[in-house]
Write a structure and sequence with these properties.
The protein has about 475 residues and is an alpha/beta fold. The protein contains 16 helices and 16 strands. Helices cover about 45% and strands about 15% of the residues. The chain has a 4-stranded parallel beta sheet with strand order 4-3-11-12, with helices on both faces. It has a 4-stranded antiparallel beta sheet with strand order 7-8-9-10. The radius of gyration is 25 Å and the shape is globular. The structure holds adenosine monophosphate and zinc ion.
Length: about 475
Amino acid sequence: MNIRLFNTMSRKMEDFQPLTPGHVGFYSCGPTVYHYTHIGNLRSFVLADLLKRMFLENGYEVFNVMNITDVGHLTSDDDDSGEDKMEKGAARENKSVWDVAKFYTDEFLRDSADLNLLEPSARPRATEYIQQQIDLVQKLVDLGYTYEIPGDGIYYDTSKFAAYGALTGGALGGNRAGARVEFNDAKRNPTDFALWKFSPTDKKRQMEWASPWGVGFPGWHIECSAMSMALLGAHFDIHTGGVDLSRVHHANEIAQSEPITGAPWVKYWVHSEFLVDKSGEKMSKSSGEFLTLSVLKNRGYDPMAYRYMLLMGHYQSQLAFSWEGLDAAANGYKNLVRRVADIIDTKASNAIDSAVFDEWHDKILGAVSDNLKTAEALVAVQELLKSPSVDADTKYALVEFIDRLLGLRLIPAAQKLKELEAADVPADILALANARAAAKAARDWARADELRAQIDAAGWSVVDTKDGAKIIKKA
Ligand code: AMP
Ligand code: ZN
């Protein structure tokens, strides 16, 4: 099947041609684990997951990498200054920086599993690749791309790299020259960035390493160049991340890599747009006001409802989060699950109509292969499930494929729904569940959570479905 992707580098839709036939390698910038991953961050990881699923269903062998940033990401992404976010997180929580990294990595991995994100082929941590980062900086030093700011670090001189900022339309696309009142005026160019930072002399850092230039820690950008080259080779097919990364982080990754690997280092750059609030403000960790998947779950939403909400949009468009929107997505998802449960009830044999199967398979995979048009694919899924002319067995086989492609767990959810419907619930538990439904309707989340806990303690769990809350005996 023809695969098309929008390439940020060319600003065009392009037919995907792999570097090695039948194989795709891609790298996705992962989370910085100084705080919870919020549902906006998760949007960029869902993009990576959809790409992987789409390539797998097209018969590709996929090798994909998503890093964990556990050192070097400074509080000002824009001009690469400020404190290390990790050390700041450790001070905030009065924990060791390693404990902070472990805690938020585990939280992130749980969210990833809840959202049904496929495991990447490799999940390197920046602190595991310090030597590779030092080696890369050394190569740049040897090639004459760097200079030292005494007491600060080794910097990359962006004026040495003619194509700097090409990803966002030239040098000014990068760290805006002169636009900031405060930038490190020891830098030769405002767009220059740190490759290696020296440890401060007045306080002890928890994470630091010896290097040919002095004790310190790597800059944020170098980690992605080093880990991607180590795991994917000097050239690879696709690099992904959120749109905010294209202007500085990815511009810097390219500037560090291409003097060593030759251009183009990466063939296709794919960026996902922001999750924003009603006023259009980007959800961000640093503002401290953000929603996590756990919050959604505690309010009774199935993580698949959020996944469905993302899939109903397009990764290149901003998506405004609202509870009403999430309710609508939850209902849309439940309707699909209801229909799948009915298919399970009516399917008879395992014989499928292969011509009909191919027609719907190609329609749905075709939409996702065309620059990840997931909303179009979901419209086709709805049509398919409603269609009276497709028999239940063929539908079921198609839903198995749809679950692999879109990762919506329709079949397990439908099976669970059927179990719930079969359960015999005692009257006192039913009363608690009704009170919880009333609290939810009144958006009294605290009360709803309290009632859920009581139901839980009595050995039952409550699951929200299209027909209201269902109660199931815990195994
Ligand atoms: P960070 O953990 O801050 O390093 O960010 C991880 C990923 O989340 C990056 O690819 C960011 O571009 C992306 N990201 C950050 N905020 C948002 C948002 N509000 N919506 C979508 N993606 C985001
Ligand atoms: Zn990165």
